[in-house]
Design brief:
Elements (H helix, E strand, L loop, with lengths): L17 H14 L22 H8 L3 H8 L8 H10 L4 H10 L16 H9 L5 E5 L4 E4 L1 H6 L13 H7 L1 H4 L5 H18 L4 H13 L1 H8 L8 E8 L3 E10 L7 E8 L2 H12 L1
InterPro entries: Cro/C1-type_HTH, Lambda_DNA-bd_dom_sf, MLTR_LBD
Pfam families: HTH_31, MLTR_LBD
Protein name: Helix-turn-helix transcriptional regulator
Length: about 290
């Protein structure tokens, strides 16, 4: 197996240091905004530092400039839920980014149970019963816990892999066949990275997840670059275009569902996006 080594300074990822990450996240979100985006007059002179000034964020959020400075310098503050909400509005955070900020400030309730490493029998049966639709079950780490035959034929026979490699992100980054599967591979990886960042903040004590991210960041330059961008997005539906080695191009829509009793697990279901893709899926099922 061939992997690419990351040369970026983000190669080491520790268990979440919420204070440091909150500071970095606030800085990146402030720097991406233009005064025009938040209804402020445009500046006459260009600045070396992009985005809003700290005093502009303070004004928009109704906070003191000193408080913003201390937050961005990771000086031990834990903002209240009201402050987090004010910052979210001021920085025009998307819903997933807002949830991420609340996670970093430790204002969302957490599941005290250990993350699942095997599928509960009812969920495993559901995955099988979804045939002929390709389906699989993952935990928040993207570990693949259960899959049906259609998913195995569409992507990969996960049963032939050691458990340590049954991880959707690991396969996309490290497995030679999976690296060539997606036509728009960078978008697929970017969306996966954005999901893992949200999961990382929501599960700060999950050392296994932290170790995974450190592995990806160390061994794959693309992942390291995208991780450093701090995008946050939990993408529950979308489309993917694949180059299948046996039946050619396949376009699928995917839907990601969360079981109410197991909120940290993800049930992913694929459907053909057009008649040609349905024909290709039928060929795989018949094989």
């Amino acid at each position: 197996m061939t992997t690419r080594t990351a040369t970026t300074s983000t190669a080491t990822t520790r268990t979440v240091d919420a204070t440091q990450e909150l500071a970095a996240f606030l800085r990146t979100r402030r720097e991406r905004l233009d005064p025009h985006d938040v209804g402020l007059p445009s500046r006459r002179k260009a600045r070396r530092t992009p985005g809003l000034r700290r005093e502009e964020v303070a004004e928009l959020a109704g906070l003191s400039i000193d408080y913003i400075v201390r937050l961005e310098q990771a000086r031990g503050l834990r903002p209240s839920a009201d402050v987090v909400e004010a910052l979210s509005r001021a920085l025009r955070l998307a819903p997933d980014e807002r949830a991420y900020l609340f996670d970093l400030a430790r204002h969302r309730p957490r599941n005290a149970d250990e993350p699942a490493t095997t599928a509960a029998p009812p969920l495993a049966r559901l995955v099988a019963d979804l045939s002929p639709l390709p389906a699989m079950l993952m935990n928040h780490r993207y570990d693949i816990l259960a899959w049906n035959g259609e998913m195995a034929r569409l992507l990969l026979d996960f049963g032939t892999l050691p458990p340590s490699q049954r991880n959707a992100m690991w396969l996309c980054l490290m497995h030679p066949a999976m690296r060539e599967l997606y036509v728009d591979r960078e978008r697929v990886v970017r969306e996966g990275v954005a999901h893992l960042r949200a999961a990382w903040a929501a599960h700060p004590e999950d050392q296994a997840l932290t170790d995974r991210i450190a592995e990806f960041t160390t061994h794959d330059a693309e992942f390291a670059r995208l991780w450093a961008e701090r995008e946050v997005n939990v993408n529950g539906r979308g489309h993917k275009l694949m180059r299948h080695p046996e039946v050619g191009p396949i376009a699928v829509h995917f839907e990601t569902l969360t079981p109410l009793q197991d909120p940290d697990q993800l049930l992913v279901i694929h459907r053909a996006a057009d008649e040609e893709s349905q024909s290709a899926l039928d060929q795989l099922s018949a094989g």
